Amino acid sequence: MRTILILQNQDIVPLLRGYLQSLDHAVVVNNTSLPILVQKKQVTILNRKELSDKILYRELALTAEDRVILDCTGTNDMRRHLEALRSQCAAVPVLVLTDADDATAERERLDTVSFLPLSDLISGNISRCWVKIENRKKAAALQQLTAGHEHVLILTQHDPDPDALASALALRTLLGRTSTTAPIAAFGEVTRNENQVMMQLLDIQLLKITAPDLEKYSRIAMVDVQPFYFGDPEIRADIIIDHHPRMETCDAPFCDIRVHYGATSTILAEYLIAQDLKISQRLATALVYGIKTDTLFLGRDINPADIEVFTHIYPLANRHMILQMEHPRLKPEEISLFVKALKSQRLIGTVVFANLGRVEKEREDIIPRLADFCLQIDDAQWSVVSGIVEKQIVLCVRNVGYVEHAGEVTRHAFGKYGSAGGHRSMARAVVSLAELKKQLKISRKEELDKNLINLFLNARDGN
Q: What's the total number of domains in the chain?
């Protein structure tokens, strides 16, 4: 990948020095002193007096894989220079350096162009500008992919969490649609108390569907989830936006999976910010809560992008509503389950194990909540909480973040018995109770608990 620097102002050179050190190949136009700063890099020098000459850009042989920094400081010909450049390659990302006093000037909206005031250059924002252009291009691709389709289904996991609900709302906003033309759907229902409160406060409607219902929609978007999760090869997706590990090849026309991000909400928020779309208080509240819950209040599995987006949208959110979501009332039966599990918890080394026994489907959310709580037990670096939900064993794993990767350990421990995986500090497994008993020749409950513990410890210790 080349970076083409078309610089007229010699004073800009020192401001670019740190950025230039990271370049492998720079093409410099009209600045003979610049190569001195990048002596160890591959540098091509071109001297041209007229930056509006299309011959210059033809000679550069621009492609969409290049990056161009176009210096338009101290000139009134910015539009002419930019038009000449884009006439040769409209897809190339361009960063236009402008004078600070015209930073707010009204300009034509171009998906591959960003304008950076010279005063901001000192702050080192060049890299973020490339990211913004990339997010803007992806947002435009999403809008183009769904244009002309009357109904777009936004599909989440069976029991969507705040990150999924917020991401779905954000995608609907990005596409400029309503709950009628882009319903948010799931094959299950929201069971967790906090998430029900979120839906009530933010007026989020969740459509419960079945697999045959998917045929009604010409475009299906999955947020915070991937097709493999559903265990049905017939369930397709045209759009996949997620931050969970990629377990299978995704052949959707649009696929943006960022495992290094703490929340899918961050990805969707970046799209909105890149396109300068208005983020309402309702949407900001959902996104803030989605990021907070999936990153445990920005305390685990976070990326600088999570912090940057959170900082951008937090002032727009309703903090009172977020407090109401974070502190819902506990029902008596939920407290009883907590007490039952804590009485049976075992601390083996640095791992807390707890088993809830049989858990009603509508109470399944108690398993991850207890896993979060058990991590607070003294000396615990891991918590593994299990429960039997209908005919399956559901296990939720948590760790402090600086030990082994929770998702990989969980996958190695339980992957051959069912679905398993997750992030560095949080993971989940769902396995068939009958199949596990059959393969491990288990006949008693005590043997089941012992085998679950041994499977996890052996995977963590690499045995």
A: 3
